[in-house]
Write a structure and sequence with these properties.
Elements (H helix, E strand, L loop, with lengths): L7 H4 L2 H16 L3 H21 L9 H12 L3 H7 L4 H8 L7 H11 L3 H19 L3 H4 L4 H7 L1
Helix pairs in contact: 3-4, 3-8, 5-6, 7-8
Length: 155
């Protein structure tokens, strides 16, 4: 008797995919609003972790992008969040877009708000700075004028 190799199409054909979608849809329709919200928040947390760990440097996501995901899911405005954090909206915005560096207090507020680790918020900031540095390395010739030897020769 000859062994037949199992093909991927034997496992995941269109009928089985449709059946699986139906099972997922049926299961999710039974979830409470609280469970659905938990799942949505968990999804954002996974996106945050994935961004930090990803080697991809073509897509830059700011802290603001992740905060916006939380705000949309929770149906909260940035202005409400700023007030909740006891900050001016314009001040919070400068931190979120990277114009100002995150500090420990804001990292802890974001962490507590989103049920994530405060280090993750710093890691987003650092990753973005490293992406910027790596892109700027392409202009290394423009920085050679800052070699200390040039300064010593000028003195």
């Amino acid at each position: 008797m000859k062994n037949k190799e199992i093909q991927i199409s034997d496992i995941w054909n269109d009928k089985k995919k449709a059946d699986l979608k139906e099972i997922i849809k049926s299961h999710s329709s039974k979830q409470s609003k609280e469970q659905i919200l938990k799942n949505q928040l968990l999804s954002i947390q996974y996106k945050l972790e994935d961004y930090i760990q990803s080697e991809n440097d073509t897509e830059v996501l700011k802290v603001l992008d992740f905060v916006k995901m939380y705000l949309k899911t929770l149906n909260i405005t940035k202005k409400e969040l700023a007030s909740y954090f006891e900050m001016k909206d314009s001040n919070l915005h400068k931190y979120l877009i990277g114009e100002r560096k995150l500090n420990a207090k804001l990292a802890l507020k974001l962490s507590t708000f989103s049920h994530t680790k405060p280090e993750q918020w710093y890691r987003v900031q650092v990753k973005n700075e490293m992406i910027e540095l790596n892109r700027e390395k392409a202009n290394v010739e423009a920085y050679k004028k800052y070699d200390y030897r040039n300064l010593i020769e000028a003195v």
